[in-house]
Amino acid sequence: MFAQFDPLILARIQFAFTVAFHFIFPAFSIGLASYLAVLNALYLRTKKDAYLRLFKFWIKIFAIAFAMGVVSGITMSYQFGTNWSVFSDKAGPVIGPLMAYEVLTAFFLEAGFLGIMLFGRERVGATLHMIACLMVAIGTAISATWILSVNSWMHTPTGYTINDAGQFIPVNWLEIIFNPSFPYRLAHTLTAAYLTTAFIVGGVAAWHLLKGRGGNAGVKTMFSMAMGMAAVVAPLQIFLGDLHGLNTLDHQPQKVMAMEGHYESHPDGAPLYLFGIPDDEEQELKYAVGIPKLSSLILKHEWDAPLAGLDTIPDDEQPPVAIVFWSFRIMVALGFLMLGVGLFGLWARFRGTLYTNKWLHRAALYSSPSGLVAVIAGWITTEVGRQPYTVYGVLRTSESVSPLDAPAVGTSLLAFIVIYFLVFGAGVFYILRLMAAAPLPSEPGAEAAPIRTGGIVPAPLFDPYPPSASAE
């Protein structure tokens, strides 16, 4: 069935599928963990029941999303050992320790306090439970920090040397961890996670408002917090994305050329192409619609600043332009869409119609998955734009793949697709069912969990104070 396929293409498709599927869960759980910590802190400070309702409402959704993120991430290490064993051998001395640090510092922190966060409110006291919430939120951010450090090093490798076996050997760990693109990628990705969560929370609240549940204090609080977060974070995310793009221009100019659709160099100012059909064979952006010199203004802050094009890059060094060009536009369009919804919410708040404006509620509902789609589109832009390299400028993707036949890779790819859609499809369906039920005053929470991990403790054989004796 797969004998005629290229095993390299199948391995790349498999990794892209599993990573894209995995990425949506951390993007949601990172922001949701912080949201839960904020809700718990607000409840402890104000004792308002609405915050407790929301905490109990979202904690169950967080637990499922967190579990699916962990499980879907396991396949990453599986593929490093099967489909990308050459890459693992050569880059392992650098990447292996960083991944281990992520487990030792972040995953253990999350695992150690997750149970207390989920089930410990009535068992460990308010202070320790609040600390557990903070530790889980911090742990998710630390986890993202290490993973993004690894990914950023693959884009802007520094602090290494190459031995006789072709392996990357660490020379300076600070340069490896804090490589040139790491701060920008970390800020952009974490902000994307918070914005993604804000729009999911806002979309759920908007659903309930459209269902006529505006009298529910939890729903109103949820919508107010989400719209406030969107109004603040959306413009910040666009600003950070611009900084990240400027950093990419310095270190990976081919990627920016593909993002902009600049096949040709522009010595007197480059246009910003809004639309077009990239043609790699003809090295031309067909049917281009653009704004003259605006790309130079954005990237160089001068109207007439020259910008080099892909005509200065050898053909075997160019990324696939069409994928990068369109994924970048999807990401940017969704970013401005989220900015518009956030500003719409801000306008409705000042007008006093935040909970009654049906157009705002519909906009929030329909845009609720926009953060997830934008995250995936941004990831595609970043990773496909790095091609044809796994370690940019040093190790090619074609040199990183395992010596496998296409049927072996294709069979595992097919198995991943079937299992993922069955297992994780069921998980997503259950999350949507939970979201469809409004937070109620009687919302069940951790109090229903078992008290002892060892099971039910049997009653003593002899009771020195039987009920009859006590009555007498």
UniProtKB/TrEMBL annotation:
Residues that span the membrane, as ranges: 20-45, 57-78, 98-119, 126-148, 191-210, 222-240, 323-347, 359-380, 413-432
GO biological process entries: aerobic electron transport chain
Pfam family, one: Cyt_bd_oxida_I
Keywords: Cell membrane, Electron transport, Heme, Iron, Membrane, Metal-binding, Transmembrane, Transmembrane helix, Transport
Family to which this protein belongs: Belongs to the cytochrome ubiquinol oxidase subunit 1 family.
Residue ranges the record marks as coiled coil: none
Highest taxon of the lineage: Bacteria
Name of the protein in question: Putative quinol oxidase subunit i transmembrane protein
GO cellular component: cytochrome complex; plasma membrane
